[in-house]
Amino acid sequence: MPLPLEHIRVLDLTRARSGPTAVRQLADMGAQVIQVTAPVEDGSVGGAHGSDYQNLHRNKRSISINLKDFRGSRLLKQLAERSDVLVENYRPEVMTRLGLGYETLSQTNPRLIYAAISGFGDHGPYRDRPGYDQIAQGLGGLMSVTGAPDGGPMRVGIPVADLTAGLFLAQGVLVALVERERSGRGQKVTTSLLQAMVQMLDFQATRWLIDGQVPPQAGNDHPTGYPTGVFPTLDAPINIAASTQSMWVSLCHTLGAPDLVGDSRFTGGRERSAHRGELRPLLEERTATFASEDLIQRLNDGGVPAGPILDIRQVFQNEQVKAMELSSPVEHPVLGELNLLAPPVRLSRTAGAVRTAAPDPGADSDQILAELGYGPAERQALHASGVI
């Protein structure tokens, strides 16, 4: 079956995580991606054979170009003329200083969608600061609402600012591609780690913006809906989320505690949240008498969401994860068969896929140059001079 974006050409100048995350969404859906890396003098591929690199950069071809050389800059411009999308995550103005910013490239390719991620945005007093996921987690407020109450700030266990910025940028690119069908014109699409992090605060942000509350840390409990949190059993802690009144009633009956339903302290959601300190030990006393799998089954049968708390190994051994095929095998010419994360979105007719392993940097330089019309002698000269 044809892939949904196989007619789209993407020029990928990204590194680290946020930019490659954006490009990965496009590549998995079939976009023709050319990765641009800096030449490696000793010919080594460094971390390109590492698991993280392989997961971020699959489904691409790669060319190495020295963008500081005028011949490399000219080559990049030629590639941009043939591209639908260019993605980069340098600091603002880096590409402009190289003569490769949107204003320059759009002159020869007005249909180009130029997508960029920065640390803190393309204007404002923090514009030129180096961006890093953990810095954005702190500046964006996430660390202040993560962790145990009064336990001090805590980072999230994944690079959530990088990942969400990449997802938001990919969404912006797709919107710009749809708009281009109507206008015939490209445009610049930008986001930042800070913008993504503040956006991801979601209801915690509105607690301040609308309600005037500064949300505190709530640990494993839901900040406002209770009882939703981690509870002990005979053999392992589990998650329970009894967020509605009917779920609350079902939870109480499943635990053999129907008396809690009529307790005036716990009659509604606000009351239960306000009296969570009194409610938790009453629930823990009862959940701790069940085996975890038994209680999870009983609660789900009663319409109360509940589930185990798995480590990463257990996640990929889980029957539902296996059934959904959330990892995907791919063959690497040196590393052999690898299992990578599968695309998280499925289309019924034109599903994306992990098709090729991440290439070594510059692995396709000669092929890509040939497609641009460079003959063997020209390619050899570029190699010899260190341009590619």
Describe the protein in words.
- It contains 17 helices and eleven strands.
- It is α/β, with parallel strands linked by helices and about 400 residues long.
- The protein folds into two domains: about 10-200 and about 325-385, Crotonobetainyl-coa:carnitine coa-transferase, domain 1 (Rossmann fold, 3-Layer(aba) Sandwich), CATH 3.40.50.10540; about 230-310, formyl-coa transferase, domain 3.
- The strands form three sheets. It has a six-stranded parallel sheet with strand order 3-2-1-4-5-6.
- Helix 1 packs across helix 7 (about 160-185) and helix 7 crosses helix 8.
- The two termini are about 35 Å apart.
Large-scale geometry: elongated
Largest sheet: 6 strands, parallel
Give the helix level as a range of percent: 25-40%
If classified by CATH, what would the architecture of the largest domain be?
A: 3-Layer(aba) Sandwich
Whole-angstrom Rg: 26 Å
Order of helices and strands: EHEHEHEHHEHHEHHEEHHHHEHHEEHH
| Low-pLDDT residue spans | none
Number of strands: 11
Distance between the termini: 35 Å
SS field, number of helical segments: 17
Number of domains as seen in the coordinates: 2
Strand line-up in the sheet with most strands: 3-2-1-4-5-6
Instruction: Determine the structural class based on helices, strands and strand pairing.
Output: alpha/beta
The CATH H-level superfamily of the largest domain is Crotonobetainyl-coa:carnitine coa-transferase, domain 1
Please identify the top-level CATH class of the largest domain: Alpha Beta
Overall average residue pLDDT: 96
Assess the beta-strand content as a share of residues.
Answer: 5-15%
